[in-house]
Design a protein that fits this description.
Blueprint: H1 3-21, H2 55-64, E1 68-74, E2 80-86, E3 89-97, E4 103-112, H3 120-129, E5 134-137, E6 143-150, H4 157-176
Antiparallel strand pairs: 1-2, 2-3, 3-4, 4-6, 5-6
Helix pairs in contact: 2-4
């Protein structure tokens, strides 16, 4: 078994264990982000191994994962990405391309506006408790909640759907996260 596959399997197993052990505790909620943003190229079979994707395929897979209001949007640099919602929170899925313009990685990202009780200590506490999705405080004090993963080694489309579900679950846990307990 390859190191990448072993690492991926270990990550999924640890993530599943963290869901089973997680305690949902009330916590001051991160601020709701401002709204914004605004099919072809599908694999022939859901079990087919893919090494790149398109925004259209990603949008379909987000819908399969239960994301709401899924749509494509153009970034200022002209690249196309996907925007959907989880619990009315806008989630961007940024398509990271290689030199041959093939999408080889996906970045799930939510940007929350600055809030007094959400700081670096909060982000660090999250990162220690839930190491698979990063919480980062920007220079402007915004909370960035990000998960990225590589698909160039080969994944099935349902793997991307499951990754979207994992991100959605962890985003909901972030809204209830209470550090120091």
């Amino acid at each position: 078994m390859s190191i990448r596959l072993t690492t991926t399997l270990l990550t999924v197993a640890l993530l599943a264990m963290s869901f089973a052990l997680a305690e949902a505790q009330p916590q001051p909620r991160p601020p709701q982000p401002k709204g914004g943003g605004g099919g072809g190229g599908q694999p022939s079979q859901s079990g087919e191994i893919i090494t790149s994707t398109t925004p259209e395929v990603t949008a379909r897979l987000l819908r399969d994962a239960g994301y709401g209001d899924v749509k494509l949007y153009k970034a200022p640099n002209g690249t196309t990405h996907v925007l959907g919602t989880v619990s009315d929170i806008p989630v961007s899925v940024i398509h990271q391309s290689d030199n041959n313009n093939q999408v080889r990685a996906l970045l799930f990202l939510v940007k929350f506006a600055k809030q007094d009780n959400i700081d670096t200590a909060y982000a660090n506490a999250w990162n220690l408790a839930k190491p698979f999705v990063r919480a980062v405080i920007s220079n402007e004090g915004e909370l960035l909640f990000a998960m990225d993963f590589d698909i160039m080694a080969g994944v099935t489309p349902p793997f991307i759907t499951r990754a979207a579900l994992i991100y959605a679950t962890l985003l909901k846990q972030l809204l209830e996260f209470k550090p120091n307990q």
